[in-house]
């Protein structure tokens, strides 16, 4: 059963009553006149072949309040793009696909590259950034939700609950972050969230004291969730990281640009499961290893912009403090799992913690050697000031791609 506890410095909107979806959707339809809504779906072509995305699209097709669906399609050649058009063509709502690898969008990217404004890395951050640019260009939305395309437990109540806080004209939230439980197949998932992010934040609080930014991050029940929604004006100013620091980076940007009473988190699902990546102990550039390093870098960089000082010695202290706290957390998770009749592989958990501890040091060393490096893609405001007609160009390119 859900409780009503308010933790931390942002509002938590719980699922207190399992309110029927029809009720919520009816309310959202009435809000859609004053706050038209858009859904952004960052997708890889390979996801079209799996069962998760077919199920998502089948259910999204039934959503009655969306004014626009924007699909960012990565890693698709011409034939694959044609197939994607058929695949998403079943959506009855107004929808557009951004064929990111197609010649028209490549041309836009080349133009931005000349100005030094294009995203430097391929990946979800870049995909989301272009989709947000298109949402600004199309002018069809006041509120925008985004969710991943690999959710295997999807149902459209997730979307209704995710967008509600920024769709209700009586609420003044600019941003809502989704959270959910991560239990599936009899075990606790969410390894990076549980075993890296929370213990690292607690360790940083021990080393640096109770900093506002750390309290803020610690307020999120699932800081790594890929599901969030925002008012459209947020899209102008936000800088999106192009690496795995995307989720933490978006939270940092919201804190930088808005007061915390404009930010909330919302319970969007009782169950959530997605595609699991390997830990990748052997290759630091893949899987959860790369993810953990990027997340550590994002947190260290943010703290440095707030005047905190890092040295090799402080990173050693952070690592040691983290390690102790993370091991205590394993005990906590184990007992919680056990009491609930779930399993928890202590050996696998400890291996993950050992890898994450190593990556805290690696990320720290990388930061010390490259203090000015930034994965942030410039805000759309900055891009518009350098290339004033960029949104028109992006809009036309997408319309032309979708027309043929
Ligand atoms: O949310 C997380 O912690 C990461 O995405 C990893 O999740 P998983 O352990 O459920 O694969």
What would your notes on this structure say?
With 404 residues, the chain is of the alpha/beta class. The chain is 50% helix and 13% strand. It contains 15 helices and twelve strands. Strands 1-11-6-9-5-2-3-4 form an eight-stranded mixed β-sheet, with helices on both faces. A two-stranded antiparallel ribbon has the order 7-8. Helix 1 packs parallel to helix 6, helix 7 packs parallel to helix 11 and helix 7 packs across helix 12 (312-339). The relative contact order is 0.15.
Low-pLDDT runs:
none
* Chain-averaged pLDDT: 96
Number of strands: 12
The level of helicity is 40-55%
Query: How are strands sequenced across the largest beta sheet?
Result: 1-11-6-9-5-2-3-4
> How does the helix and strand content classify structurally?
alpha/beta
Radius of gyration: 21 Å
How would you spell out the order of helices and strands? EHEHEHEHHEHEEEHHEHEHEHHHEHH
What percentage of the residues does DSSP assign to strands (E)?
A: 5-15%
Distance between the termini: 50 Å
Helix count, DSSP H or I runs of 4 or more residues: 15
GO molecular function: transferase activity
Protein name: Glycosyl transferase
Keywords: Transferase
Question: What's the short story on this structure?
Answer:
With 404 residues, the chain is α/β, with parallel strands linked by helices. Helices cover 50% and strands 13% of the residues. An eight-stranded mixed beta sheet has the order 1-11-6-9-5-2-3-4, with helices on both faces. The protein has a two-stranded antiparallel ribbon with strand order 7-8.
């Amino acid at each position: 059963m859900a409780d009503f506890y308010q933790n931390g410095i942002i509002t938590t909107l719980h699922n207190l009553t399992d309110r029927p979806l029809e009720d919520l959707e009816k309310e959202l339809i009435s809000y859609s006149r004053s706050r038209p809504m858009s859904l952004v779906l960052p997708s890889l072509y390979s996801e079209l072949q799996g069962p998760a995305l077919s199920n998502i699209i089948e259910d999204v097709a039934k959503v009655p309040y969306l004014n626009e669906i924007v699909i960012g399609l990565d890693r698709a050649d011409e034939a694959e793009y044609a197939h994607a058009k058929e695949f998403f063509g079943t959506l009855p709502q107004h929808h557009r696909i951004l064929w990111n690898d197609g010649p028209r969008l490549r041309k836009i990217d080349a133009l931005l590259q000349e100005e030094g404004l294009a995203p430097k890395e391929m990946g979800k951050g870049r995909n989301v950034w272009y989709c947000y640019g298109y949402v600004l260009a199309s002018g069809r939305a006041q509120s925008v939700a985004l969710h991943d395309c690999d959710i295997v437990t999807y149902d459209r109540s997730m979307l209704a609950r995710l967008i509600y806080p920024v769709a209700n004209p009586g609420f003044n939230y600019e941003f809502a972050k989704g959270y959910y439980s991560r239990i599936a197949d009899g075990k606790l998932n969410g390894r990076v969230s549980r075993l890296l992010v929370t213990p690292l934040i607690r360790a940083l609080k021990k080393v640096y004291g109770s900093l506002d930014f750390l309290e803020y991050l610690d307020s999120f029940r699932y800081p790594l969730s890929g599901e969030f929604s925002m008012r459209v004006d947020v899209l102008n100013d936000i800088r999106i990281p192009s690496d795995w620091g995307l989720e933490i980076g978006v939270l940092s940007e919201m804190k930088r640009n808005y007061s915390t009473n404009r930010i909330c988190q919302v319970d969007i699902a009782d169950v959530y499961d997605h595609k699991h990546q390997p830990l990748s102990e052997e290759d630091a550039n893949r899987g959860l290893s790369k993810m953990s390093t990027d997340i550590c870098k994002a947190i260290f960089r943010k703290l440095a912009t707030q005047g905190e000082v890092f040295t090799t010695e402080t990173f050693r202290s952070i690592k040691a403090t983290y390690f102790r706290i993370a091991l205590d957390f394993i005990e906590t998770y184990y007992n919680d799992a056990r009491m609930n009749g779930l399993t928890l592989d202590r050996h696998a958990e400890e291996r993950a913690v050992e890898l994450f501890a190593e990556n805290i040091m690696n990320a720290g060393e990388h930061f010390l050697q490259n203090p000015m490096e930034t994965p942030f893609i410039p805000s759309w405001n900055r891009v518009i000031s350098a290339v004033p007609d960029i949104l028109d160009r992006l809009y036309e390119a997408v319309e032309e791609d979708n027309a043929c």
